[in-house]
Amino acid sequence: MHGLDGAAVSALVDARFAALRHTLGPRLRPGFDALLARQRWGAAAPGWYTAPESQPILVLVLQVAEALGDAVPRSAVQDALEAAMLGYAFVRVQDDWLDDGLLATDPETTALLADALLVHHQAATARAVGGGDPAYWDLFARTWTGYGEAMLLERELLRGPAAGAPPYDAAAFEAVLLRSRPMVLPPAALLARAHHLSRLGALERVVHEAARAAQLLDDALDVLSDFDAGAMNHLVQRFGGLHGRQALCAGWVLGGFATVWEEADAALQAALHAADEVGISGPFGRFVAARRAVMDRVREAAWAAVTR
Length: 308
Prior knowledge:
This protein is mainly α. It has helices at 6-23, 29-39, 59-68, 74-98, 107-129, 135-157, 170-176, 185-193, 200-221, 223-228, 234-238, 245-278, 281-307.
């Protein structure tokens, strides 16, 4: 993988974060430092950024680079890794602000820090693409626009039908998953660099199904806490939460729990099939095996939360 193992990736990402921090002015830097501290970024242990507990933000970059081999230079892979982390950092700032309210006391600084991260994400992406397929930039614009729409849709859906929101049904869940679609952009930049965007459709399916599995797991862990907070996620609505907490617990224990895990596992399997079309089924298969081990641990925690 172009000589980039877990330790090398951690060193690279931390160095790129340090370089970006140096370019930020004194008014943006404190917010950036707070982001690094919240996420435990900037001085990470080897393997921290590629752990199977998280979405495969950097893993896919490394795996696509391995599949492309000498068709992409090591510098492009490094830039794609930077682009992936800065894109994710942009999303994390927005999530912390919109979903958790952590940054609501200073919305102006938050918005401008997010803008700075997105601009640097695009600059790193441009370096990774180089003189590759210009169709990539249509994908870039379309993907980030879809992300914004999906973020706003999810906020609307979480209010629940009682507040006038449409139901958070299967179709809505599919639409909300588009907020994870930007994860495709850094590895797709390498495909564009090598003039292999013909593999893009399969790569998008890998990302979509991996995001589906991760979202199902996240929502399963949060099903009761989300209900108690008034956030009517799709599992809350699907398994009885519209009729109260007792109905939700009953629906979850009497089939919902098992159903969600079957669906998450099926999503990982679908991602693995798509990975074969991209040419990364071997390394992605190892990631899926590690993710399934994580799922087993999460399953025990989620079951304990609703049955204790």
